[in-house]
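Course assignment 3, question 2. Fill in each field.
Student: A.L.
Task: Predict the tertiary structure for the chain below.
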Amino acid sequence: MDTKHDIPHREIGEQDDELLEQLWKQLPDSQEDPFIADQGFKDLQGRIQRKLRIKRRFRILTAGSIAAALITGVLIFRTLIPSEQVSTAIAQLQDMGVTISDDQVILKMGNEVVMSLDSAARIELNTADDVALQTAAGKKLALASERILKLEVPAGRHFQMTLSDGTKVWLNASSTLEYPASFEGKKERRVRLTGEAFFEVSRNEKCPFYVETGNQESVQVLGTSFNINAYPENSKHFTTLVTGKISYQVEEGKEPVILSPDQQVSFDCVSGDMKVAQVDASAFAAWKDGWIYFEDETLPDLAKRLSRVYGVEIKVAERLRNYSFSGKISYERGVDYITRLMEETNGVVCEVENGVLWLR
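Answer field:
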């Protein structure tokens, strides 16, 4: 059984020394971390303040850029926002030879790619027949109100879309949303999600809002905010309510579950089991603000999430598959902090082979 150590989930800032004294490590054999010793931390605290040199030893740089969670359970990185410059972390990965996805967010009508998009867009509804897509970069596209649109967000990207009814949707990396150009004249508002998204639904009691995912899952809302994590490759899907009230139904004919704020329903795609738990809902929606929250998450699952966030391929050796971690990752900073920390740890080797980051 792993030994657990609590640590405040906070961004590293001017109080780095205080946080360093609280860093913890989880090992499968429950051994105490020999690195977390007084003198070791004093030495590390001094080194952490020194600026990272990109050309220093390859293996250490690789370890610091992605895999600090393997040892510390805490990661800090720069946000990857499509409209901003490539972050320091990503630039360093590129320097090391890690293949970074350069796929763009695209809008489709059927199988036809209509345009590439930047960081955000909204659908403007002037009249029932006058519908247009307006992007943050100033592009404008006239749309037929009856058309079904498909928004595809690749690994390494996030995207915000405002639908024609005013509903706001934040799409996480490797996610897809299908939705009509307009809800005008419809008795319900229905969209389909693959992957992860946070919704702030515009209230309309006469026209309920539905989100469909795989495995016949459906969420019905009137006006509320919630997060859905339903990546098809994951064995469990999670729906977490932040505000309002939603009705969750795993398939037609089955009794729906009504969620209140700070409740989460998990659905096991293999067994069909469904459970409701009390959670801190804000933690599960934190990704849209540049954070990744994880609790008792296995290293392979954590590697999947990091792969999506940064658009890189990460593989985990068999011997590390039972490692699990809890913590909070900021995309924003800490490459120098992480690499210096990894320099003092052992048990995990990070190498790049043919553009793939291996954790061994």
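Instructor remarks: The domain at 16-100+290-359 is CATH 3.55.50.30 (Phage tail protein beta-alpha-beta fold). Residues 171 and 197 are 4 Å apart (CA to CA).
Grade: pending
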